[in-house]
Amino acid sequence: MSETGTYLAVFTSNKSSPRWQAWYAMSDEERRARDEEGLAALKAWDESNRDSIVYDGGPLGPTKRTSPAGVADAVNELTVFVVVRAPSHEAAARLFEGHPHFTIFPCDCVDVMPLLGPDA
Questions:
Q1: Which CATH number does the domain housing residue 94 bear?
Q2: CB of 54 within 8 A of CB of 6?
Q3: Cβ-contact 110, 101 below 8 angstroms
């Protein structure tokens, strides 16, 4: 593994949480305004962290789960992902403090984990 590690950051959201219920309760105009604010903040976050971002990632769509029982639709709390490089796990996690996905948009948190293996 390199001196600077590679980390997967996955934002999670419980779509039935009070934060999402408040989001759904907004008028179209309120949601559009919040979207504009959030997208501008996301762009600013991306620009200020450009040197740490390995892969921009993006929103995650509907889930198909494959198991010994076959393939079926599934629901999980995975919402958005990004891959970053940082000098430590702690430093990677700190990149996301105050992130727009949970200060403006209704994501609950971001889980940050090292990608393991010789090419990570």
A1: 3.30.70.1060
A2: yes
A3: yes
pLDDT at 1: 42
96: nearest Cα among 61, 38, 52, 59: 52
Residues of the chain with pLDDT under 70: 1-4, 118-120
The answer to whether residues 73 and 64 touch, using CB atoms and an 8 Å cutoff, is: yes
For residue 107, with 0-12 CB atoms within 10 Å meaning exposed, 13-18 middle and 19 or more buried, which class applies? buried
Classify 26 in phi/psi space as left (phi over 0), alpha (psi -120 to 50) or beta.
Answer: beta
Tally of domains in the chain: 1
